[in-house]
Design brief:
It catalyses: a 4-saturated-(3S)-3-hydroxyacyl-CoA = a (3E)-enoyl-CoA + H2O; a (3S)-3-hydroxyacyl-CoA = a (2E)-enoyl-CoA + H2O. With 271 residues, this protein is α/β, with parallel strands linked by helices. Helix content is 49%, strand content 14%. The longest helix is centred in the C-terminal third of the chain and has 18 residues, at 230-247.
Length: 271
């Protein structure tokens, strides 16, 4: 499955899924959310157990790489699209209808998933990276929650992913303060598997993916199943969706989105 927004290729058992909306910093609009959901679901199917009568066949996909084209990994929700939703009264239904299924599809991939993070990852883009099993980050990349800055709570399971990595107190600090986390700090917080120079990132990730693709895939699947608590992330995503639905109706959220588009500071009223 390949289209203009998501490019997919498979080579030697490694499925590479490339987010391809560089002109918009790989921000997530409806078409991209749905395309990613389909790409993740297809990877999960292709990494599944062989069908009956084919038990000597290796699965088509034995490792997955999630990467992006351009200067950003993924900057989360397309805020221009969000402003249009606010004006038309569409609200945050997309969280339940599009974001959560996209994340569930990513979490359902049974083989190791590696994030190749060459540039900024924010909001749901950071959530996508955190939902991967391993994360390799360029020295030029960064993380940012970017939710309170637009008058929203976390979505896409990011709150639970950060709690799992950082503990409750530090996760809350990161989400509330909403500061940019550069590569050295991300490594010190144990948010990434490794930080490498930009010119070495692709080769580093390819080497790790190749190791998985040539390794004992059944054992990797069982190990991932034992350790991964996808249900906790999905439950958090459902709770986050409820919070987003409430916050989408607030004056502060509308003001934050409008101020962003108009390139001015937001004037929050606390309502």
């Amino acid at each position: 499955m390949t289209n203009s927004l998501v490019q997919v290729r498979t080579e030697d058992g490694v499925r590479t899924i490339t987010i391809h909306r560089p002109e918009a910093y790989n921000s997530l609009n409806k078409d991209l959310r749905l395309a990613l959901k389909d790409a993740f679901a297809e990877a999960a199917r292709d990494a599944g157990a062989p069908r009956a009568g084919e038990d000597t066949e290796s699965p088509a996909v034995r490792a997955v790489v999630v990467r992006a084209e351009g200067k950003s990994f993924c900057t989360g929700q397309d805020l221009k699209e969000q402003l249009e939703h606010m004006k038309t009264g569409a609200g945050m239904g997309k969280v339940v209808e599009e974001y959560n299924p996209m994340m569930a599809a990513l979490l359902s991939i049974p083989v190791p998933v590696i994030a190749e993070i060459a540039g900024p990852a924010a909001g749901a883009g950071w959530a996508i990276a955190m939902a991967c099993d391993l994360r390799y980050m360029s020295t030029q990349a960064s993380f940012k929650a970017a939710f309170t800055g637009v008058g929203l709570a976390a979505d896409s399971g990011l709150s639970e992913s950060l709690v799992q990595r950082l503990g409750r107190s530090k996760a809350l600090e990161v989400l509330l303060l909403d500061e940019k986390i550069d590569a050295p700090r991300a490594q010190s917080l144990d948010l990434v598997t490794g930080v490498v120079e930009p010119q070495d990132l692709r080769e580093t990730v390819a080497s790790v993916a190749s190791k998985f693709a040539k390794g004992p895939t059944a054992a990797y699947k069982e190990m991932k199943g034992l350790v991964t608590r996808a249900d906790l992330v999905e439950n958090a995503a459902a709770a986050e969706a409820d919070a987003q639905a409430r916050l989408a109706k607030t004056a502060d959220h509308l003001e934050a989105i409008t101020a962003f588009v108009e390139k001015r500071p937001a004037d929050y009223r606390g309502i």
